From TrEMBL:
This is Periplasmic heavy metal sensor. It comes from Prosthecobacter fluviatilis. Keywords: Membrane, Transmembrane, Transmembrane helix. The chain crosses the membrane at residues 6-27.
Amino acid sequence: MALQRFWLQIAAFLVLVWAGVGVVMWVTEDSVFSPDKTLALMAEAPWLEDENLSEPKRKAYLDKVISSVLKLDFSQRNQMREDGLETMERFTKSLTDEEKGVYVGRTVEENFKAVMKGLEKLPAEDRRRIIGGIQREMKKKASKNPEMQMMLDQDAASFEKNFTKDMGLFFKEAPLSMKLEMAPMLEGMQGRMQGMRVR
């Protein structure tokens, strides 16, 4: 009888623990972000179904999407791009110019500022290697976006010098479409720079 009671107490305890885990998971569901959830938010943007959605509702939903994007780490953002490029493109194309500016300003431009600060702090050899990678990435994108070509027609040394000096101005004046195209490159660079600092 005592052994049976002992097993009943253990079973009751385990039921309570798992019930607690379930409640915590349910309560924190909205606080956990993943590439899949972020892509789902993009795919379910209410204005895709209702073109007459009010501006405050659009703004609130866009804020929700941006918050979700910002809470993803570099590998998650990369995974999101690999798994849902079409969804991301459909979402960004559905934004008004003003909304695109907000989206880029809060996601892409923050990465750009972090990359530029990081580049300034790197040793010259590491900076040269990273900027060489940037130039290679930009050359791949240049075929789709001729506006990038002006910086790429330079030799590597000139590119490095002008990149660190003029990139802020270049990025500031670049069209939103170019900034969106540069997002994966900037996120990748920021991740690599953080890895260099850890070494």
